UniProtKB/TrEMBL annotation:
This is Glutamine synthetase. One of its GO terms (molecular function) is glutamine synthetase activity. SUPFAM superfamilies: Glutamine synthetase, N-terminal domain, Glutamine synthetase/guanido kinase. SMART domains: Gln-synt_C. Residues 118-452 form the GS catalytic domain. The keyword Metal-binding does not apply. Keywords: Ligase, Magnesium. Pfam families: Gln-synt_C (PF00120). The keyword Ligase applies. Belongs to the glutamine synthetase family. GO terms for biological process: glutamine biosynthetic process; polyamine catabolic process. The lineage of its organism: Bacteria, Pseudomonadati, Pseudomonadota, Alphaproteobacteria, Rhodobacterales. It comes from Seohaeicola zhoushanensis. PANTHER family: GAMMA-GLUTAMYLPUTRESCINE SYNTHETASE, GS CATALYTIC DOMAIN-CONTAINING PROTEIN.
């Protein structure tokens, strides 16, 4: 046991310093990004090299139903072999006993990566970059709301009560006073993050009532996706300690801005260590423009991954801090694709389309896939947009069904993400969308019942 614990990452060893490890949570992300797995005694984990879960977990919808393909005659539920990635070992500091979490990778019986596993999808895309001698680098930004407890789905979501005893106020972006309102929750987020070895680049108040943003330092896409996967659980647990909920819905409150997971990308030449978006004299390179063109040409097909639920499309509203098109511009937050101010070595491209409700592995994979296709196709983007992009044409799908149509038609995106993953993802999302269409909303009852 001691030898095994000595091999853990430093943050996990520090968390266990002087403590007896009780339990290990063996986890893997499903399609929505929910942690699935098993909790085992530490003594048993020390002896096991893998464990099994059925591959049908990737056919489960967000409501807990099973997509029809899982019951098709040709579908046979098989056990996957889940092997731990010990570099992901991390504290679970909110548990009652001393527990660590370990993310696992999924393989079939022949040792091949299971193509529907979100972490494997991202690894596949990263490997395509590496095959070209490139190392992709990302930096995700996480927006979320702290809201009052809500146990009645028929009731609207309300902002949480702040430290002052008043509901959280809207339109207070970057206000330090507003951040102080959530001080106790934020303190717990920092404490949990420190226990887990995560470095937060900053926390700010966003424009919505009770809306916060956490920035993470740039780095390896798989490592950053692991952190976002862990952070969602961490933040929820911190909120529960203070009698409120943390929600990552794209649009939880009407008339308030939605929550995004903005993704910053750059690409490093593995041989030289240089950013391929910047030339020797510091200018913008062809690769920089090819990457932008890839986002413009292929993001419409990827929206179904970046905006995975019917609620996701409520975020794409004019003048509500979310893009409505795929224009690109320098230091322009109204465009879907933004080039932030930076020096040549830090030149990067920001995708502002992804919602915080997307699976972080799949959202980052889809965004990188679009950029990769641009680099390979060597196309040029449309002319830079100057001014208010909300005055431009809308070219973002507004409903889930349209987004899925584009996703299913894109063979280029499927070849990068993996055809089998795209097939299963489409089946699951069609099932969710059809289930939603069977629900009659309060708006329909109020305005159509007696008027049509």
């Amino acid at each position: 046991m001691a030898d095994w614990i000595d091999s853990l990452p430093e943050s996990a060893r520090e968390f266990l310093n002087g403590k007896r490890l009780d339990e290990v949570e063996c986890v893997i992300s499903d399609l929505p990004g929910i942690a699935r797995g098993k909790a085992v005694p530490a003594s048993k984990f020390a002896r096991q090299q893998y464990f099994h879960l059925p591959d049908s977990i990737f056919y489960q919808t967000i409501t807990g139903e099973w997509a029809e393909a899982a019951g098709d005659e040709g579908f046979i539920e098989k056990d996957m072999i889940l092997k731990p990635d010990m570099s992901t070992a991390s504290a679970a500091p909110w548990t009652g006993d001393t527990t660590i979490q370990v993310i696992h990778d999924a393989y079939d019986r022949k040792g091949n990566p299971v193509p529907c596993s979100p972490r494997n999808v991202l690894k596949r895309v990263v490997q395509l970059y590496k095959d070209q001698g490139w190392q992709p680098v990302v930096a995700p930004e996480m927006e979320f709301y702290l809201v009052a407890r809500n146990i009645d789905p028929a009731k609207g979501i309300e902002p949480m009560m702040g430290r002052s005893g008043r509901p959280a106020a809207a339109r207070q972006a970057y206000s330090m006073t507003a951040v102080d309102e959530f001080g106790p929750v934020i303190d717990h987020i920092y404490d949990f993050a420190e226990d887990q070895g995560f470095e937060i680049d900053g926390i700010t108040q966003e424009g919505g009532a009770g809306q916060l943003e956490i920035n993470l330092r740039h780095g390896d896409p798989v490592k950053l996706a692991d952190e976002v996967f862990y952070f969602k659980r961490l933040i929820r647990e911190a909120a529960l300690r203070h009698d409120c909920f943390a929600t990552f819905m794209a649009k939880p409150i009407a008339d308030e801005p939605g929550s995004a997971m903005h993704i910053h990308h750059s690409v490093i030449d593995m041989e030289t260590g240089k950013n391929i978006f910047s030339g020797p004299a510091g200018g913008e390179t062809d690769a920089f423009f090819h990457f932008i063109a890839g986002l413009q040409h292929h993001l419409p097909a990827a929206i179904a991954v970046l905006a995975p639920y019917v609620n996701s499309y409520r975020r794409y509203v004019k003048d509500f801090a979310a893009p409505i098109n795929l224009e690109w511009g320098r230091d322009n937050r109204t465009t879907g694709i933004r080039v932030p101010l930076s020096g040549p070595e830090a030149r990067r491209v920001e995708n502002r389309l992804a919602g915080m409700d997307c699976n972080p592995y799949l959202g980052i994979a889809a965004s990188l896939a679009c950029g990769y296709l641009g680099l390979m196709e060597e196309k040029r983007p449309e002319k830079q947009f100057k001014g208010d992009a909300y005055e431009g044409e809308e070219d973002v799908p507004r409903v889930m069904g349209d987004a899925l149509d584009l996703f299913e038609e894109s063979t280029a995106l499927a070849n990068v993400l993996g055809p089998e993953f795209c097939r299963v993802y489409s089946i699951v999302k069609r099932a969710e969308y059809n289930e939603f269409l069977q629900v009659i909303s309060p708006w329909e009852r109020e305005h159509l019942l007696l008027n049509v």
